[in-house]
From TrEMBL, chains A, B:
This is Asparagine--tRNA ligase. Keywords: Aminoacyl-tRNA synthetase, ATP-binding, Cytoplasm, Ligase, Nucleotide-binding, Protein biosynthesis. It is an enzyme of class 6 (ligase). It is found in: Cytoplasm. GO terms for cellular component: cytoplasm. Belongs to the class-II aminoacyl-tRNA synthetase family. Residues 135-453 form the Aminoacyl-transfer RNA synthetases class-II family profile domain. It catalyses: tRNA(Asn) + L-asparagine + ATP = L-asparaginyl-tRNA(Asn) + AMP + diphosphate + H(+). It comes from the Bacteria. Homodimer. One of its GO terms (molecular function) is nucleic acid binding. Its EC number is 6.1.1.22. GO terms for biological process: asparaginyl-tRNA aminoacylation.
Length: 463, 463
């Protein structure tokens, strides 16, 4: 079918004005009188809807006049400029084919629905203004991230989802199995007989692709992952989901400075891409979801990010301990309230906090010369706190083994990882960006359930 | 660190010749004499390696001369044209910093290793020529697919991985659970107490995002998914993996013709993108992996795909039944041998086979007027057979329910899917492309284990 996207009408108006076009879309609202009427339709390609004028010269005038909100129609007619009206143009319909009417109990009537209610109809909510905007922007952010890395010749690596190892030794994991849960087989010594399982051993859903990603950085120099990760944490917050997407770039022959430069460039690139490609959606968020959003993003895109060490940050925060629920002292992990204080009040722009105590960071981070801190960085942004966490990796075989022993990690589980320090080790660094947190940040949406098409959280796995 | 990618030296030679550059990379081979030597290094950004000349004026001449294959070095020196040599230029090293040597037992010595052996060291194999080429091309194909759809304003949708429903009622699935397998809780009536499980019900890994994708096509008109899917099938073949990636576009206000136009355009776009962006890798595959590859791909990119109905195809095939292991008659599913006969011998180019018997296709495909066949299409390509399968979807509520009843599907499980036919139903169509099959097709690689970084198959879940 030769349909025009409504987006093309708006973006290339002059090409279409005065010409006959055919558009398919869904009815958002309708006004009618005895001899003519207006249909407002949206086809999902553009945030703004399109007005259609139809009259009783049409054979199916009565049918059209009875359409319910949500109905699907294919409209043909001349696109006509409407200089006096709010919208720039409308279609004067010569034909309105009804593809499918919408039943009277259609849940999305004109009134405004709460996000809570819309979560119960996740298959229909993308038809509303807010979720049209959210999920188009989500798509654009995903593409901007790919574009950023591909333009810089980073190789996209699909790290595995099902894994036989617990990457970071952290986080509760989902088990993956084909065993009959009602009759779990056991060996003679009474343990579960995983030989009967699909992979012949216990397997889980990954919590991070980083260690696998490092193996590819040691071959391709610059790589990134972009895929789903899973946490079986029983936390019912607005910021946690059991299934979410992560971006994890990794660079060989790179140190913590390079890592921060990459993170800063990426964030600015993505923000600029979305501001350029979804101006209508971003204006909507700014007006209805988060008043200061555009100003904040534009500020971030044009600021040099600040840098502060963890030790300096703690000194700053200790002076304000009376303002915090959790008091700060050297050695403690920073909470969101501290992160937001730093980025919003102290620096007024994004800030990298670097060189954290080794005790609160992962085993693979590079030990600094002070023997107390590691070459880690967290990027904090106004309104959110931490959005990116990264580090230079320990590239010295002996130091890495020493740290693993301190933490009681089983060396054999990490043979492949140690090989990278044995055969052509090179300084390298990378970071992780939680994709949904990035979408929340750029849209201003406050609940992770509202930026994932079909969110998975404790006791919630619908559709 | 200010390093130049080797790719940039080759692609923008004139910008660098005669200038000092710094390059990081890994030693592929070495030749040395008493007073000077050559290092051949690769940094993973380009298929061709770079030659480095070093002499005994360097302080660490002895250290360099003892480096093992696989060692990581950072080299600084002037890039010098070598018009008499095989390679276009080399670096005259003024400094060679050893980042990390490579232990003597480095598994990738200069001799050629079998793919079987390299599968046992999946963390090191991307350092070989073949797997450098495979995984760079894999990355480029992934990006080309995103670029194709984004340029056409398709919205990228992340459909869920963990699912409470068996999408197509087909395929063995992996269970996802946080229950203690050693002490699976039971309810009073003796059944498993899934209330104790993370999601409060049985959950699996998805086998397809299509039905979820359709809900978004009914909001955004044109969408695509690109994410992992899973099959717990106990099949140990060169074409099946338990974890693989799928692309599933879906278009509203589109029929089977539109679907085929999209599939053909996408395949041609992706092939052309790879030929343009990875000429060295493609030449390598053509020479060492699959002799006729380039000619075949160029032919596909420039042919109009053929079209034949299933009924016509069966008539053609029946005439050659003596050549087939499985004899063909109307109603049977086509095997790879039949598919390859059609695309390679009968048509000599890619061919769409359409309108299959409803009995051998999924419940959601649109019933044709003959009441016997459905508006399905498979795209067959030389060398592979089926690479894409798609259909127009049944958009009539009553017909869809009727078909579900015939097949004994539980209507309540599909309420959300039926809602799409109740509230503004529109003709729509889509297809599925197995990403790995596409990578195999474009690289000529014969085993799916060799186009997935860390493949998961029966009894195999390493790293």
């Amino acid at each position: 079918m030769e349909l025009v996207n409504i987006k093309d009408l708006f973006r290339n108006e002059s090409e279409y004005i005065g010409k006959e076009v055919t558009v398919g879309g869904w009815l958002r609202s309708k006004r009618d009188s005895k001899t003519f009427g207006f249909l407002v339709i949206n086809d999902g390609t553009f945030f703004e809807p399109l007005q259609v004028v139809y009259g009783d010269a049409l054979d199916n005038f009565a049918e059209i006049s009875k359409l319910n909100v949500g109905a699907a129609v294919i409209v043909t007619g001349v696109l006509t400029a409407t200089p006096q009206a709010k919208q720039p143009f409308e279609i004067q319909a010569s034909e309105v084919c009804v593809e499918g009417n919408s039943a009277p109990d259609y849940p999305l009537q004109k009134k405004r629905h709460s996000f809570e209610y819309l979560r119960t109809i996740s298959h229909l909510r993308p038809r509303t203004n807010t979720f049209q905007a959210v999920f188009r922007v989500r798509s654009l952010i995903a593409y901007a991230i790919h574009k950023f890395f591909q333009e810089r010749d980073f190789v996209y690596v699909h790290t595995p989802l099902i894994t036989g190892s617990d990457c970071e030794g952290a986080g509760e994991m989902f088990q993956v199995t084909t065993l009959d849960l009602d009759q779990v087989p056991h060996t003679e010594d009474g343990s579960i007989d995983f030989k009967e399982d699909f992979f012949g051993k216990p397997t889980n859903l990954t919590v991070s692709g980083q260690l696998n990603g490092e193996t590819y950085a040691m071959a391709f120099k610059n790589i990134y992952t972009f895929g789903p990760t899973f946490r079986a944490e029983n936390s019912n917050t607005t910021r946690h989901a059991a299934e979410f997407w992560m971006i994890e770039p990794e660079m060989a022959f790179a140190d913590l400075q390079d890592d921060m430069i990459l993170a800063e460039s990426m964030l600015k690139y993505v923000i600029n891409y979305v501001l350029e490609h979804a101006p209508e959606e971003m204006a909507f968020f700014n007006q209805f979801v988060d008043k200061g959003l555009l100003e904040r993003l534009q500020h971030v895109a044009s600021s040099d990010f600040a840098h502060v060490t963890y030790t300096q940050a703690v000194e700053i925060l200790e002076k304000h301990n009376e303002e915090f629920e959790y008091k700060v002292s050297w050695g403690c992990d920073l909470q969101t309230e501290h992160e937001r204080f730093l980025t919003e009040k102290e620096f007024g722009r994004p800030v990298f906090v670097t060189d954290y105590p080794k005790e609160i960071k992962a085993f693979y981070m590079k030990l600094n010369d002070d023997q107390k801190t590691v070459a880690a960085m967290d990027c904090l942004v106004p309104g959110i706190g931490e959005i990116i966490g990264g580090s230079q990796r320990e590239d010295d075989y002996d130091k890495l083994v020493g740290r693993m022993e301190e933490l009681g990690l089983n060396k054999e589980d990490y043979d492949f990882y140690l090989d990278l320090r044995k055969y052509g080790s090179a300084r390298h660094a990378g970071f992780g960006l939680g994709f949904e947190r990035c979408v929340m940040y750029i849209t201003g949406m406050g609940n992770i359930r509202d930026v994932i098409p079909f969110p998975r959280t404790v006791n919630n796995c619908e559709l």
